[in-house]
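Quick one: structure for this chain?
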Amino acid sequence: MLFGEEHVRRYVETDGAEGHDWQGTVTLLLTTTGRKTGRRRTTPLIYQKNGDDYLVVASKGGADEPPLWYLNLQADPEVTVQVRGDRFTARARTATPEEKPGLWRKMTATWPAYDEYQQKTSRDIPVVVLERV
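Got it. Here's what it folds into:
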């Protein structure tokens, strides 16, 4: 099973032939700019399409602090996304309170553990919308 840096490396090398399909789900690569270092960081994330947009969840397994990639995109919402061999620039935003319930249901249908992660923390786990620029 691919995970972490190896997941990213194989995904990039194979245009997602290895790494896109992961544990019964699909993953994309999200590249953010470090808010402190300015370095580009790439993270594999489970996603779902929502119209022309892509959805990801900033869960960090239910930790009380958000994942670093989420903090990075809050500082700089311009990101790079790779879905299989398709690489594009996107603008990331947190789903609004009005749209989150429907998007959350879509994501938990894909990865039911998100509901368990939310129960583990008092932090409101965000759904992030990636809008192609």
